[in-house]
Structure formats: C-alpha cells, structure tokens
Amino acid sequence: MNIETKANVGDIVYYLKRISRVNCSVCAGTGKIHLGTAIMPNAESPDAFAASLSEQFMQNLTEMIIGNVREYDCPECGGKGTVKATGQSRYEVGKGTVVSIEATMNQGHEKVIYRVTDSTSATNRTLTDEKLYLDQEAAEKQCRFMNLERRVVPLECVQIPPRFAKTIPCNEKLVNRLNEWRSHRKFETEIYVDENLNLFDGYTSYLVYRMLGIFDIPVVIWPEDARK
Ligand SMILES: [Zn+2]
C-alpha cells in the first residue's frame, strides 16, 4: 500500500501547542515572595518624610541583605512560578522531528498519523496531516489567528457596513447556517469584526443569530492592521 504523506521520517515539522500554564502574576514567575518591614509613613513635614523614607529604605535594604527579609513560597502558585492558564485557549508554535508515520483506516478513509518528538520537551506528540505544518511561517500565521481575541458581545453593538446591509444572502447559505445551528448550537463560520466591532466576515451567521432572536453573539476581534 502506497500512501502520500505530507512529511517523512526525520523531517522538521511545526504545529500548534496549547499553552496550559502561564507565569504567575503575584511573584512574576519567581515562585517566591519577600516580606520585610514596611516603610512607615511620616507626615510631620514633606522634608522629614523624605528623609525618613530614605532612612527607612536603607534600613529595609540592609535587612534584606543581612537576611531579615523572609522569603516565602508564593501562595498564588505554590512556589511553582506558573499557574494554570484560564480563559480563552492560547497557542504557541511547537517544533519537532517526525520519528514515525502510521496509516490507519478510518471510516473507509486512510488517515495518516505522525509521531513527533517535541524539541523543547521530552514528550512525543501524535499529529494528523491537518495539524502539521512544514512551513514555520504558515504555522505562525495559524497561531496568530487562533490567538485572536474571541468575545461575546451584544448583537446590536456589531456594526454592519452598507456593502453587507445591501446584499441578501442566498437561501442555501441561510439553510446551511440553520442546519449547523440545529446540530451544534453554533456556526462553522465565525463572525469577524475589527476593533470597533465593524463586521467584515460572517454576515450570514450574524443574520441567523438575529433571526433566532439571540442578543449576545460570539465574535472574533481581528484589528485591521493585524490582518495583513
Ligand atoms: Zn507565584
């Protein structure tokens, strides 16, 4: 059996990796916090305050140097320096080497699976054709797209440019959207807006949301200067 593969064993490939942990904001990623003597305000006169401030500051600095300032594991991240990423999934581009390729049959179609060793971690990944890029720039482009801000906004805040408002989408498109809605409660075509919520793509999805009487709709914010 001869199968066309996108990459060969030994090839360098690129892919998107979900960022699961981010730097802790409390300890700035160090995993440690320091508790020393707080600087005491002194309101006698601005000059006196300024003088005592530098005095106190020197005192603090000395304590820090001689070790009076105690170091603790950061309570936010438990000393790890990173916390679990929350909110919208973010991605980065990973780089790895193909170590093996397998072909399986999936519902009568051949499916090619690549086993890839990640260059920055000891883990192996399995990737399919559509998740694998030979070109780093293509992977980075897709990564930027995936990392665009996705937000739910009131439908009435989305601005429809006249060139859309004048058109009537064909029935077939609307029927397709309705079918997507019935089976997934969302549309395959996302609604794209610029930073001022001017719609530039996904108009039929927008129309169907309006027909369904949905007030808050998901949009992808894609600023114009980031689209080039
Ligand atoms: Zn921390």
Overview of this protein structure:
The two termini are 42 Å apart. This protein is flat. The chain is built from five helices and twelve strands. A hairpin with a 5-residue loop joins strand 7 (109-118) and strand 8 (124-128). 26% of the residues lie in helices and 30% in strands. It is an alpha+beta fold and 228 residues long. It binds zinc ion. Zinc ion binds at residues 24, 26-27, 31, 74, 76-77, 81.
Which structural class best describes the helix and strand composition?
A: alpha+beta
Q: Kindly, what is the distance between the CA atoms of the first and last residues, rounded to a whole number of angstroms? A: 42 Å
Major beta-sheet overview: 4 strands, antiparallel
Radius of gyration: 27 Å
DSSP strand content:
25-35%
Quickly count the helices. Answer: 5
Strand order of the largest sheet: 1-6-7-8
The mean pLDDT is: 87
Shape: flat
DSSP strand tally: 12
Given as residue ranges, the uncertain stretches (5+ residues, pLDDT < 50) are: none
Give the cofactors and ligands.
zinc ion
Helix share, percent:
25-40%
Keywords:
5 helices, alpha+beta, binds zinc ion, 30% strand, 228 residues
Could you give a quick summary of the protein structure above?
The protein is an alpha+beta fold and 228 residues long. It has 5 helices and 12 strands.
Layout: helices, strands, pairs:
Blueprint: E1 12-18, E2 21-23, E3 32-35, H1 46-66, E4 70-73, E5 82-84, E6 91-106, E7 109-118, E8 124-128, H2 136-146, E9 149-154, H3 162-165, H4 171-184, E10 192-193, E11 199-201, H5 203-211, E12 216-221
Parallel strand pairs: 10-12
Antiparallel strand pairs: 1-6, 2-5, 3-4, 6-7, 7-8, 9-12, 10-11
Helix pairs in contact: 4-5
The protein binds zinc ion.
